[in-house]
Each structure stands twice: as structure tokens, then as C-alpha cells.
């Protein structure tokens, strides 16, 4: 394994580990909100908004579980527990998660709106990372994660 590949793998590992920690913290915040404060927020809503609240709660949870499962798969790949080719397999891919329609989050409390927005942002970042890792595996270069990452990839190809 070349030095640039080793550096890239170290970068991948740190990025995936930090995203995993972020996802777990967000999942814990969501659990705490849904267990302890959601009922009081739901009680202030009309019938239609209560249904929307339930749907959005499921979407937040689904996004987080898809992200966590995908990150655990990436850790298994980096640890050699799964082959690198597993990244391209559909069953190991980031599961689909429904987006929240524009304007829905404003109907809810600030806490719920923040959970929706943060879970969508995390899901979108992980989705971009997945495309980039799969693209790298095919020797396609997707949009770089950062200028430093782009430089590492170009150096790897040059040597």
C-alpha cells in the first residue's frame, strides 16, 4: 500500500469516526427529545400537525439509523471485516430517507425543527461522502470533500 493510500485511509477513518460520533450524539438527542419533551410539543398542535409531527419523527429516526448503519459498514470495510468492494453493493449502501417538505419544520417547536434540519444535513453529508467513496473505487473523482482531500487523490494518481 502506498503512502498516499495509507494517508487517504487514515483520513477516511477519522472522517467516518467523527461522523459516527456526531450521528450517535444526534441520535441520543433525538431519543431524549422524543422520550421526554415531544408529548408536550405535540399537545400544542392541531390534528393534522400531530400527524405531520409523527411522520417527521419517523423521518428523523430513519435518517439517523441509515446514517449509523452506513458508517458502521464503512468502519467494517476500513477494519478489513468487509471487502472494499462492499461499498458498491446496494445492500451496504446508505438507505433512502424521505426529505422533509419545505415549510413543515416551521410548524413545530424550535427543538423539533432543529432535529429535522440537523438530521437532513447529516444525511446529505454522508450521502455525498458515499458517492465520493464509490467514485474513488471506480477511479472516478466526484466532487472533492476538501482541497486537501483533492490534493491527496491527485498525488495518489501521480505516483
**CATH architect. name:** Orthogonal Bundle
CATH topology: Helicase, Ruva Protein, domain 3
Shape: elongated
What is the CA-CA span between the terminal residues?
A: 12 Å
Helix content: over 70%
* H-E order: HHHH
- What integer is the average pLDDT? 88
Structural class: mainly alpha
Task: Provide the gyration radius in Å.
Answer: 18 Å
Beta strands, count: 0
Number of domains: 1
CATH class, named: Mainly Alpha
CATH superfamily: Protein of unknown function DUF1465
Q: What is the count of DSSP helices, taking H or I runs of 4+ residues?
A: 4
Which stretches of 5+ consecutive residues score pLDDT under 50? none
Largest sheet: none
Task: Report strand %.
Answer: under 5%
Q: Brief overview, please?
A:
The chain is mainly alpha-helical and 159 residues long. It is 71% helix and 0% strand. The longest helix has 41 residues, at 3-43.
Descriptors:
DUF1465 family protein; AraC-like_sf; DUF1465; Helicase, Ruva Protein, domain 3; single chain
